[in-house]
């Protein structure tokens, strides 16, 4: 928890995920695949507040493609949105019904939906439905490689390592992932990381090797 505490002290509560409803989280989790969040925001704005899943379910595919075009890969993502909406419809678009299911079975269901990989599934479970399912992304892997943290080299191994070493609390899972994302954007960047100013610099081996 040393890394978590340091990042939380530096950045504060990130208040992530930026959405008003669980379904909006689901849509955002699909749209953010392989693109920047700024592009997702442009696509979300095109919905003009029409976040009811029943509307997306009945919307013509070509219309949906046009709406989400700013997010990129819109042909694929429109289909993926239809797929995840169809999954949600099996629960009658009722969040309370989803939350009654065991985490493991829900994750298995989501991973069986075409277009929903581990990162998207865990984002939906954590941020839409408040399940303790840690989200691993490129920022997480970069931090682990540079610090370094001995957590393995594949998604499930990294996820398991984090979940075994942090409290099983929604706010911790929520904040930790968001803080890692912020840190990856501002300091632990893919190219030209700002190691000298990094709040983790004193303990990060990547920084020590530079000095």
Largest sheet: none
Structural class: mainly alpha
Give the overall form.
globular
What is the subunit arrangement here? single chain
Name the helix and strand elements from N-terminus to C-terminus, one letter apiece.
HHHHHHHHHHHHH
- What is the number of beta strands? 0
Helix content: 55-70%
Radius of gyration of CA atoms, rounded to a whole number: 18 Å
For this structure, what is the CATH homologous superfamily of the largest domain? Hypothetical protein, domain 2
- Tally of separate helices: 13
Low-confidence stretches: none
Distance between the termini: 25 Å
The CATH architecture classification of the largest domain is: Orthogonal Bundle
Compute the number of structural domains: 2
Return the CATH class of the largest domain: Mainly Alpha
Would you write up a description of this structure?
The protein has 211 residues and is mainly α. The chain has 2 domains: 2-14 and 137-210, Orthogonal Bundle (Endonuclease Iii, domain 2), CATH 1.10.1670.10; 22-128, Orthogonal Bundle (Endonuclease III, domain 1), CATH 1.10.340.30. It is built from 13 helices and no strands. The chain has helices spanning 2-11, 22-31, 37-46, 53-58, 61-67, 74-89, 95-99, 103-111, 118-128, 138-146, 155-165, 170-186, 205-210. It is globular and about 55 Å long. The chain starts with a helix and ends with a helix. The mean pLDDT is 92.
């Amino acid at each position: 928890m040393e890394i978590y505490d340091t990042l939380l002290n530096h950045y504060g509560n990130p208040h992530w995920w930026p959405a008003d409803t669980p379904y909006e989280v689901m849509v955002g989790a699909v749209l953010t695949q392989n693109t920047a969040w700024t592009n997702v925001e442009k696509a979300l704005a095109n919905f003009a507040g029409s976040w009811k899943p029943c509307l997306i379910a009945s919307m013509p595919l070509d219309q949906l493609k046009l709406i989400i075009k700013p997010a990129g890969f819109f042909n694929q993502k429109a289909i993926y949105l239809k797929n995840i909406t169809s999954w949600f419809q099996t629960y009658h678009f009722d969040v309370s019904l989803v939350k009654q299911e065991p985490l493991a079975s829900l994750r298995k269901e989501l991973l069986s939906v075409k277009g929903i990989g581990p990162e998207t599934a865990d984002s939906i479970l954590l941020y839409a439905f408040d399940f303790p399912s840690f989200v691993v992304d490129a920022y997480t892997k970069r931090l682990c490689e540079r610090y370094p943290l001995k957590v393995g080299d594949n998604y499930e191994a990294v996820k398991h390592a984090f979940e075994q070493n942090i409290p099983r609390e929604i706010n911790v899972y929520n904040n930790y992932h968001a803080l890692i994302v912020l840190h990856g954007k501002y300091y632990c960047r893919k190219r030209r990381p700002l190691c000298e100013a990094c709040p983790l610099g004193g303990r990060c081996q990547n920084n020590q090797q530079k000095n």
